[in-house]
Hints:
CATH topology of the largest domain: Rossmann fold
Bound molecules: NADP nicotinamide-adenine-dinucleotide phosphate
Low-confidence stretches: none
Largest sheet: 7 strands, mixed
Strand content: 15-25%
Amino acid sequence: MKSREIRLVRHFTGPVKPEYFELAEADIPAPGPGEVQVRNAFLSVDPYMRGRMIGIRTYVDPFQPGQVMDGGAVGQVTQSNADGFAPGDWVLSMHGWREAYTAPAAGLMKIDANLLPAQAYLGLAGMTGLTAYAGLKRMIGLKEGETLWMSAAAGAVGSAGVQFAKAMGAHVVATAGGADKTAFCREIGADAVVDYKAVSDLAGAVREAAKPLGGVDAYFENVGGDHLQAALDVIKPFGRIAACGMIARYNDDTPMPGPTNLTQIVGKKLTIRGFIVTDHFDLQREFIGDLSRWMIAGQVQMRDTVYDGIARAPEAFMGLFTGANTGKMLVRL
Ligand SMILES: NC(=O)c1ccc[n+]([C@@H]2O[C@H](COP(=O)([O-])OP(=O)(O)OC[C@H]3O[C@@H](n4cnc5c(N)ncnc54)[C@H](OP(=O)(O)O)[C@@H]3O)[C@@H](O)[C@H]2O)c1
């Protein structure tokens, strides 16, 4: 059987360009003992993948030029040579960026596509949701009545976090780029919104927006750069910051100087905690419990941006850096 896949052409720094990716065809063997063959239905593209294209090891190994990349994917078993897996079963894997694959069943997780749409396991009910949950619960320790500033709030982690924070009884100031995205943030429950592309003084705009909510107690960092600078200025003394990601910096050719107001960390006695979701799988059971309650109560909704076809996977990935997505960015095969 043949499968089309996306390979990395070479390592690079700077902006992402289409020529760094190639569409290729691979032979997929029949499953050996303990293996299954799977046809992917949805692939996830994620900002962290950018770090794997530079060629240095961060908290995860780099992708290798000339080889298919990997990433989250959900698909259905087409052939099985493994106990407990039958054709038609839905599985979650890290065998993304390809249409189909053969792999040991032991490395796959079966998912219930009757309970939730299969793609939800890549977004709200998957790593994305757990990232938002761990950041709010464990890094920030968000309390009822507090006010959270969520950055990149119309994106995957951001929109999950806005809704979770509201369900936890907090107030939310959401920042996102453009009128459609700020409208979406309001729709999912943000108390106040700021279109960061439409203001010249981000700190001032967030401060004003947070004033009726008692000011910013905590900041969820997805962006970095000017957003972090503004957050250090706006946040109240003893504020907590969950450092989840800094997407504004991922395409830098050379490292940019940090915020000029780092002394605010001292004077305001701030706590800044960086984290990676893979260290927080022990929260999974509690997360799914809370998420199920919130979904049943209608407090949480899912929004995806979907590109069709494996050939468009690089375009979907590049779209993360231009704000092309509202909610989770996915590729449907
Ligand atoms: N620590 C972890 O374990 C972990 C896990 C998952 C994700 N993350 C991080 O969480 C953040 C969000 O990831 P995600 O998967 O949810 O992606 P996402 O937010 O769905 O997509 C990226 C969004 O970032 C915004 N953006 C891109 N470039 C920007 C810039 N220069 N300045 C301001 N905003 C910019 C865009 O929204 P606008 O149109 O609003 O600008 C874009 O839609 C990323 O930093 C990612 O690395 C961390």
